[in-house]
Amino acid sequence: MEMIKLDATDSTNTYLKNLMLRQAVKDFTVVQAYSQYAGRGQMGTSWTSEPGKNLTFSVLKKFINLPARRQFSITMVTSLGVYSALKQLQIPGLRVKWPNDILSGGSKICGILIENMTSGLNIQSSIVGIGLNVNQLDFGELEKVSSLQLLLGYPLNPEEVLHTILSHLKESFRQLETRSYEEIKSEYEQLLFRKDKPSTFRNKAGELFMGFIRGVSADGKLRVEMEDKQPGEFDMKEVQLLY
């Protein structure tokens, strides 16, 4: 594993992508930033992090013969890897908020952004960006956000947390070769936040509706049973879970 440590960068994902344009980069190369001033989340949202208090890093993962139609498997094994690492650290109430935010109770502690590079019908490689709140105590006006220190009551060593996560990620990525897609999906679905509970959603028109999360489809869409018992499937652009 090759580790690149930066004092500051706009985004570790962007840094890694630009590096790949200039030179050959080994599988599981990690780029970590002490300060990230333009971190990105899903759907163009920003990820802000207090310098030196948290973990902001990206991992390059290369694949052989991983079909593009199975790209959601990358999201699932990444979420499962981070989940298992945080479980080892005894973080309480862990859940995955679809598609790949990690929550403790109802508070977000980790965000994940995955960018895939395809060749033909296969995914050639992915850049997996992870932002984890470790020792930050003040999140300003942000709601439903927490950190490992707030949850455990004591500060943690970010470097030790990083290596715990990387170890679990390596093992989780191996599951793409040793387990079926359905086995991985079943484990992921059991961790979904608010699964089988009445929940409120907002559609892309801004309208609110009620439903029950039942799982994910084969291509990673959120499966929701509507109030009228009819099934629905939504991608990230189509629905937002409000709790």
Q: What characteristics describe this protein?
A:
alpha+beta, 14 strands, five-stranded antiparallel beta sheet
Describe this structure in words.
The structure is a single chain. The longest helix is centred in the last third of the chain and has 21 residues, at 158-178. The protein has a 7-stranded mixed sheet with strand order 1-2-5-9-8-7-6. A 5-stranded antiparallel sheet has the order 13-12-11-10-14. Helix 2 (72-88) crosses helix 4 and helix 2 (72-88) crosses helix 5 (181-190). The mean pLDDT is 93. The chain is globular and about 55 Å long. It is an alpha+beta fold and 243 residues long. 26% of the residues lie in helices and 37% in strands. A hairpin with a 4-residue loop joins strand 10 and strand 11. It has 2 domains: 3-190, 2-Layer Sandwich (BirA Bifunctional Protein, domain 2); 198-241, SH3 type barrels (Roll).
